[in-house]
Design goal:
By secondary structure, the protein is mostly helical. 56% of the residues lie in helices and 0% in strands. Pathway: Lipid metabolism; fatty acid biosynthesis.
């Protein structure tokens, strides 16, 4: 799976979970500032992503943007 595939899948999950337009979500999209996501929203997104990609996302990771999340998941998948 390429990083672009990971990005597209994550964008779809975020759009579905947060009821947002996937075409407006980019790697620089900030969860709190751009998507108005609270900690519960972020938890739900992370939970779906963990299930979808069969990875574990450490809650200590500083994930502020979609790009941060994509990079983290991509590294987990490559490991």
């Amino acid at each position: 799976m390429t990083k672009a595939d990971v990005l597209n899948k994550i964008k779809d999950i975020i759009a579905d979970q947060l009821d947002k337009d996937a075409s407006k979500i980019t790697e620089t999209t900030n969860f709190k500032e751009d998507l108005d996501a609270d900690s519960l929203d972020v938890f739900e997104v992370v939970d779906k992503i963990e299930d979808e990609f069969d990875v574990e996302i450490d809650s200590d990771e500083s994930i502020a943007t979609v790009g941060d999340l994509v990079t983290y998941v991509d590294k987990q998948l490559q490991a």
